[in-house]
Amino acid sequence: MSPKENGQERGSTPRRYPLAYEKAVPIVLVILAAGVAVLMLVIFAVALGLFPGS
Amino acid sequence: MTVNILLPMTSAVVSLVFAALVLRRYLVRRGPHLLLWGIGMVFYAIGGACEAYYGAFGWNALVYRTWYLVGAILVAAWLGQGTVYLLARRRWANVLMVVLGLASVYAAVRVLTATLDPTLMTTSVHTGSELSGHAIVTGGVRMLTPFFNFYGTATLVGGALYSAWIFWRKRVLLHRTLGNILIAVGAMLPAFGGTFSRMGLPSALYLTELLGTVLMFAGFIRATTPMRSEAAVQEARA
Fold it and tell me: How far does the CA of residue A8 sit from the closest CA of chain B (Å)?
């Protein structure tokens, strides 16, 4: 491996979070994004008076 | 002391301490986002205090109007407006601030002049042990709440999730990624509680409000405090 290639390899090493966070953060973000989407729909439905009692 | 006093009173105290920390940070660093977050948390504390008052002493029209205006309508939107100032172009943030300000004044006039009937809180699905919007008789007033909460939830939760995603994608400032996730969860909880309350399931409101403020507070502390491992890396680089 040429020094250049070697250097590129070393220089292009991606930054990483600790392993647990690497795995957990995207899952949590997706779940929360889905949660907020549901919440927005419910708020919208409440505004339209689609739920009894609202 | 009942749960309907203890929970909102604790929410109010936590929110007030949180507001004091945010406003102290504003005095040092400036930035309209900190000022609006501070104001939003003061609103949160006022809302909690009104709920605790109702739990302890019962009905009072002024306390109820204050609770509905500040705690049910304005709090999420003003907190979210802080996030708008943090993430959006200043020009757009200013435009939205003017719109929010005018809408808030309109909401204040409508709530303060609305006809109230506290018995409606006990004759509907509500038990009367928790405050709800059902006491407002005048039409159209309660219709304001979802619009403010839609804006507040979209900007506050959406902004926190967007920030967390940006930090995660760049793999920088882990403490801010985690802090923003906590803030997003904390902001969603009372939004769910308030929405359930409107749907006729009020028992979760006070609990979600308390958990919400605790999680947002924890998120703020996390986001503004670098983790030990990160601090060690920064020291090694320096």
Answer: 19
pLDDT in tens, B211-225: 999 999 999 999 998
Say what the ipTM of the complex is.
0.76
Structure tokens at B200: 């006729």
pLDDT in tens, B58-80: 888 999 999 999 999 999 999 99
Residues 1-54 of A with CB under 8 A from B: 14-18, 21, 25-26, 28-29, 32-33, 35-36, 39-40, 42-44, 46-47, 51-54
Per-residue confidence band for B123, with pLDDT thresholds at 50, 70 and 90: very low
The SS3 call for residue B129 is coil
Cβ distance B223 to B184 under 8 Å? no
Is A53's pLDDT higher than 60? Answer: no
Q: Is the pLDDT of residue B91 over 60?
A: yes
Euclidean distance between CA atoms B15 and B43, whole angstroms: 9
- Chain A residues whose CB is inside 8 A of the B172 CB are 15
Count CA within 13 A, CB hemisphere, residue B20.
6
Residue B6: other Cβ atoms inside 10 A:
14
The pTM for the full model equals: 0.85
Contact flag A21-B172 (C-beta cutoff 8 Å): no
**How wide is the angle at C-alpha B193 spanned by C-alphas B88 and B13, nearest 5°?**
80
| B147 interfaces chain A, CB cutoff of 8 Å | yes
**Chain B interface mutation, best of A19, A27, A46, highest count of B Cβ atoms under 10 Å:** A46
B204 and B148 Cβ atoms separated by less than 8 Å: no
Instruction: Please check whether residue B198 touches A, CB under 8 A.
Output: yes
